[in-house]
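From the pipeline queue, job 12 of 40. The input is one protein chain; the requested action is below.

Action: predict structure.
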Amino acid sequence: MPFSVRELHKLYQVQPDNPSTISLSCFRRIWKQHFKNKYRKPKQRDGLCHLCEISHKLKKNPESVPQWQKTIVDRHVYTNELTKQVYKKTIDELTPGGNDAVLVMDFKENMSIGVGPREIGQSWFSKEKRSVLGFVLFQKDTEGTLTKRFFCFISECLAHDAIYVKSALNSLFALDVWKSFA
């Protein structure tokens, strides 16, 4: 969250349509009860590759990594930043109302079906697993606003390989909803 509780209290106090004032202590109590758990920064960084993890360690303690690893990590970080810039530029350059679009896909974490609040020990090994492959289609409508359309494929196939991706893409392109975008 970019603001501290004190700054949020100040923002709340200066609202012109707010006739009632509230003390900072009362605001903190309300903040803790209703909003604190909903608006906190994530504590863990998931999905990092090993080079990004080394880069994170380098920021804390630059002497902990040898020089040859620093050069590899620096190149990796540069490539990541360049890829992000190209991605943002590609999204920004979509023509409003045009036929061009950007399709982003990624595997999500495999999930288990049939998990409940109470389980017996042997049910741990009999849970059914599913793989989730998500797609996001970015397009700009005629007014120029970016629209996102989400597609999810849930499968018993747990292998995240090219054959599965190819069959999911074929299924996606065969959908009537997909054909209506053209």
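Job complete. The longest helix spans residues 67-92.
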